[in-house]
Amino acid sequence: MHFGDERNSVSTEKVRNIGVGVISLGWMGNLHARSYRAALEHFPDDSVKVRMVAAADASRDAAVRAQGVHGFEKVTADYREILVDPDVDVVSICAPNYLHHEMALAAAAAGKPFWIEKPMGISLAQSEEIARAAARANVITGVGFNYRNAPALVHARKLIASGTVGRVTNVTVRFLADYSSDPAGALTWRFEKARAGAGVLGDLLSHGFDLGHYLVGRISEVCALTSTFITERPLPAQDAVSHFSSGSGPLATVENEDHAAVLARFDNGVVGVFEASRTAVGPRAEYTVEIYGTAGSIRWDFQRLNEIQVCVGRGGGPYGYTTVYAEPGDGDFAHFQPGGGIAMGFDDLKTIEAHLFLTSVLRGEQLAPSTADGWAAAAVVDASERSVLSRSWVNVAMVDGITTFNRST
Ligand SMILES: NC(=O)c1ccc[n+]([C@@H]2O[C@H](COP(=O)([O-])OP(=O)(O)OC[C@H]3O[C@@H](n4cnc5c(N)ncnc54)[C@H](O)[C@@H]3O)[C@@H](O)[C@H]2O)c1
């Protein structure tokens, strides 16, 4: 059985034919829409169907385009219409960051399970309110921490838990991207404090902090430095929304950081080094995780997402890294490819995320990552921002309702 467990499901009619509403049809909204349908292809279950009910976007063009591609029955410019639509059972929130808070609170109030993109809000307070509202309303949630779903990383997590690298001593997590390396790149919402919140701390390192939580444990204390290397950018042409667009308008000020360097301590004594850049020239999307232990180490790079480099011990044989390819048995790999060495891609990680979310909804059991994980990552972003301001080490606020730190789950 891949999807439902009828004992815990809310209503047989609804769980069999899940009505989907997607809010905001940019890069992520289109990917969410594709992923709901792909989840059914990769995790087939005859008793479950997905019905693409409604798409909402402030840009009518974006909504209508998405309707053509994904077959939504309705389009609207007002996301609230989706939340009161009785045919919509689950909602994706893929808007720019500043809209997440009001949309998530409205979804929780409407009792709709929601799958929200990271960063969950533009501040710790917003993220906490989202997580608490979801918990109070008792709705299932999902958060866009897709990198956790890479089967090679799931395998790495198992190796760590089974002591293969000994006691973990330190980790290095680097998210180096070039998406804003061109100074002619448009000043979109991502560069404004009011609409994005943090820069790379929220955009990239929220993923990095979540991976730290997922693989190692709770980050308890940080000391951070942030920098903005390209301080002005051209305003976008009216219809340019993507962070890959060029601008043609007058120059305006970039309000959040291009680069962040964060030293961290975990609750369990592990030391962390986190770095992110959106202006690196050379790395395209070089997102790396390195875990060092007393008996070995493991390395992963998103650009080679199906493999890890593993070094175990110094005892005797050749000393160095072995490439271990993800294969059936590692996470959900078998749902995508029949054998090791055959590559999965980025969109597949989102398909796994959709499946986790839908399964959570159908079973009535939160499978993770949830808004509590989004809140936990936001707490580390917030501590990093406070550390920058105070030029000192800062404690990370505690969060409620998280199961990720328990490495047996
Ligand atoms: N998980 C990941 O790896 C990942 C990758 C990229 C983006 N994201 C996150 O996804 C979210 C969206 O990013 P994106 O790259 O898809 O953005 P995007 O700029 O491509 O698309 C944003 C969409 O929101 C729409 N929009 C703007 N105002 C709206 C409103 N009031 N109501 C409804 N729709 C509105 C725009 O018209 C546009 O279609 C962000 O929070 C971002 O951080 C996550």
List the helices and strands and how they pair.
Elements: H1 12-16, E1 17-23, H2 27-42, E2 49-56, H3 60-70, E3 74-76, H4 79-83, E4 90-93, H5 100-109, E5 114-116, H6 124-137, E6 141-143, H7 151-161, E7 168-177, H8 193-196, H9 200-203, H10 205-215, E8 219-227, E9 232-236, E10 247-253, E11 259-266, E12 271-277, E13 285-293, E14 296-301, E15 307-312, E16 322-325, H11 346-363, H12 371-390, E17 394-395
Parallel strand pairs: 1-2, 1-4, 2-3, 4-5, 5-6, 7-12
Antiparallel strand pairs: 7-13, 8-11, 8-17, 9-10, 11-12, 13-14, 14-15, 15-16
The structure holds nicotinamide-adenine-dinucleotide.
Nicotinamide-adenine-dinucleotide (NAD) binds at residues 23-29, 56-59, 62, 79, 94-97, 99, 117-118, 144, 146, 203, 241-242.
Structure explained in plain terms:
The chain is α/β, with parallel strands linked by helices and 409 residues long. Helices cover 32% and strands 25% of the residues. It has twelve helices and 17 strands. The protein has a nine-stranded mixed β-sheet with strand order 16-15-14-13-7-12-11-8-17. Strands 3-2-1-4-5-6 form a six-stranded parallel β-sheet, sandwiched between helices. It has a two-stranded antiparallel ribbon with strand order 9-10. Helix 10 crosses helix 12. About 2% of the residues have low confidence. It binds nicotinamide-adenine-dinucleotide.
